Amino acid sequence: MSETQCCENPPTLSSASVGIGCVAEIGGLKAYITGPPDSKLAVLLVSDVFGYEAPKLRKLADKVASHGFYVVVPDFFFGDPHVPDNPERPIAVWRQSHGTDKGFEDAIRIVSALRSEGVSAIGAAGFCWGAKVVVELGKSDHIQAAVLLHPSRVTVDDIKEVKAPIAVLGAEHDKMSPPELLKQFEEILAAKPDVDGYVKIFAGVEHGWTVRYKDEDEAVVKSAEEAHKDMLDWFTKHLK
Fold this sequence. Notes:
240 residues; alpha/beta; 8 strands; eight-stranded mixed β-sheet
């Protein structure tokens, strides 16, 4: 399976202040946190391999927060996001230190911390790498809604085990999750009447487009904004 798309159009990361939120610790991890702290509805955004400092991801977090959600974007990589131009550490090597199984364990700690703060319903959205973490969360009652955006390494068996309402937003041109695979996801969800499922394939875009779009590409920006709205609508529908 080609992973080159996971590394295309990388963001310019900045530890400087980006967004209207703040960086704080939750569940033992640093996280970008934004939105009303007294909200009983929380959204966890699980990044792609470039991590929680990506400006467009933080911008999206602020957008979600503006709808009344308490939004948490954790640093699942502990200050060590993937750096594409490091020839000594290609993506396959980097992944050895940052498996989604560890990400899932860390995510549970964050969910527990949110529950202890009085949050009553939690949604989670995963981008590329993060989608695998979110689908694992969706297999039990850890979260009340899941959204996978251009998922990586999510399998048919994963979708079969999902219990939480789940939306899958994929790209037409995606080697990690091609349309053929997404249509299998759709068929599986259609056969699970007890799980609200939704699959949408966005035409003309590539893996990673929702958080790694180029600002000058108006068509892709419009598609990304449509996906963001679909994600928000899903959380608004299922987080009560």
